[in-house]
Design goal:
By secondary structure, the protein is an alpha+beta fold. It contains four helices and eight strands, in the order αβββββααβββα.
């Protein structure tokens, strides 16, 4: 009887573990259809507003289960000199890991390229959702990546503290 019970527990644990893995890595993600115009935007130094940039080969995924699950890849012909003169840079960019099956987005490689200066990060859209910024990173070879990252105000508010005076007022649903 003990062996049967042990086997049943192990089988249940394996099924539950496999189910959780599937839910985390596959189930909640959806492909994002490119609209051909607003998929890749970076905040302009002049207007302070996000503006579309030239891009090709756009691929993206997103999930409604979390505002930081968005990931995208693209290519662009825009060079670093033009980008830095035109758009707002983002100093604290930290690419978040994408599911392994979304193979165009390698967070470790993007992070290394940012640290080594081979890629530059820019503010895509500030507060795309309260406390979440859309970040765009572009490699010197024209490959680009987009992800959502919690900003300073979001980190404070999501930790249960009140927003500092220099932050936008959070929606009531955040508290």
């Amino acid at each position: 009887m003990g062996k049967i019970l042990t086997i049943a527990i192990v089988v249940c644990a394996l099924v539950a573990g496999g189910g959780m893995y599937y839910l985390q890595v596959y189930a909640f993600y959806d492909e994002v259809a490119a609209d051909g115009h607003t998929d890749v935007q970076i905040t302009s130094l002049i207007t302070g507003m996000p503006e579309p940039v030239l891009y090709d080969d756009f691929r993206a995924i997103d999930a409604t289960s979390s505002p930081i699950r968005y990931r995208a890849c693209f290519t662009t012909s825009m060079n670093h000199a033009m980008l830095t003169e035109t758009y707002v840079s983002y100093d604290k960019a930290e690419p978040l890991v994408a599911p392994g099956w979304f193979d165009c987005f390698d967070a470790k490689a993007v992070g290394a390229a940012l640290e080594e200066g081979r890629a530059l990060a820019f503010l895509g859209t500030e507060n795309i959702e309260y406390g979440i910024d859309r970040i765009v990173a572009i490699h010197e070879d024209g490959r680009g990546w987009v992800w959502h990252q919690i900003n300073r105000c979001g980190a404070i508010v999501f930790d249960g503290r009140h927003a500092p005076d220099d932050c936008p007022t959070p929606p009531a649903s955040v508290y």
